[in-house]
Amino acid sequence: CRRNIPALFAIPSTAHLTVSGSFPLAFEIILRSPRPTPFESIDALTISFSPGRIGHLQLRGRSDSKERFSLSFRLGDHGDHPGSDHDGHPSCSTVIQDVETLLSGTMDAVNVLEVRFEEDVSVTMHDWLHFLEAFPSLESLDVRVLSCSDLLLALRATPHCRVAELLKNLAITCGNGNKVHEELVEVIETRAEGAARLESLMYVARGK
Questions:
Q1: Cα separation of 30 and 11, whole Å?
Q2: Who wins on pLDDT, 56 or 201?
Q3: Which parts of 115-180 fold into alpha helices (H)?
Q4: CA-CA distance, 75 to 160, in Å (whole number)?
């Protein structure tokens, strides 16, 4: 019964849904229950992932600048996440898969995405490609990550791989300093040549 709690309520389309709990129970409650109405029409999404002994994953969805839902999961420290690394911490790849599973059918309409990968989170180019392809309507991307090198590789437009074709606004905060200036220029040039031109780019270097 406890795994179908949301099914007991009729959630109005104007409601704000807040869920907070430990993984995997809180995650499965949402996943196994009828899709809450606040999931249906979001156009902006914020994803925050903090690893470590007691990690956190938070998702906040908005529609017309109004927050529709806030989901917060404690990820634990005993390898209870199906994709934990050798230290028992959930990997970034697995977290990305969880987000796609939970919000399946919702991400198509998201045009504003904020991603906050805190602390020492490593994201591969493959992860970025797979993740960004799940947001076909993406127009604005704001990322905070330790290293943005693989993100920039994923964002390069090539004849065989054009990711986030509608992307116009890109903001990156990372710890790479001036080491990725050439990669930034390459992203701008290749996207312009591939008819996926950026209108604005903000790059902020932060200390490690």
A1: 13
A2: 201
A3: 125-132, 149-155
A4: 37
